[in-house]
Amino acid sequence: MNPTSAVECVRVHDGEVPDGRPHHPATYEIRRPQELAEVLAVWPDEPVAAHSDAGFVCMCWDPAHAGPSRDAHDPRVRELPDAARPQPLARLLDRDSPDGIPARHRARWAAAAPGVLRGYAEAMARGEEPRPPTGIALAAAFTWRGAVREHPLDAASLLAEVAPLRVLAAAPTAELARAVCETDGDGLDAAVRFFASEEFTARHPKHRRVPDGVRDVLLRYARSRRPGDLAVLERRLLRAPGGRVRRS
Q1: Which CA distances in Å does 78 have to 69, 120, 236?
Q2: Could you give the percent of the chain with pLDDT greater than 70?
Q3: Which of 111, 142, 206, 231 is deepest in the core (most CB within 10 A)?
Q4: What are residue 246's phi and psi, to 5 degrees?
């Protein structure tokens, strides 16, 4: 039996990422069968020494010398450390190559973005730093960020957090409050995370006022689904005049 046939995941550790690709994660996973097959087809037979600044070499590609991992003995998972990778594996995993697997992950993520945010997502996937779009339905940005919970930890996973957060952080509080009433379940989870985040709580108090109905919706969700965020929301979500909001 081919020992690679049981592999379901390759976990790639890229370590620190240079400024040229600021939203590439330090660790990501490859799970799609076609991409797994490409990686395993060029997987080297011998371990490769990982880089070290401490004056020694770690043969952490070799299972006999591997560091602790929750999947250390799982034959379905292969760990690929931050190492001097031989070609053609290095080309396949080059984070800047338009033909590499990381670029494919970013392209898939951008293609799945809501229509009003797709151009912005495509620019970020190319490594640009576009201005967050304005005048859009922010409920879509909440839903976009909320869907991260269902996405694999692929090479676009950091983009999937950062890109929607930038859109939300640039939006006025009144527009964010309206979007809470219009978003779906995934979006409401993202809304609670955003209103409990530093990007919102660092705003001036007069920019943290939301209608009572919106505040109630966020607190109710946090109380039942995200209790760790409840105390922050209670302190930082300030009351403002406004109509009650009902959610089904």
Answers
A1: 11, 34, 43
A2: 80
A3: 142
A4: -110, 135
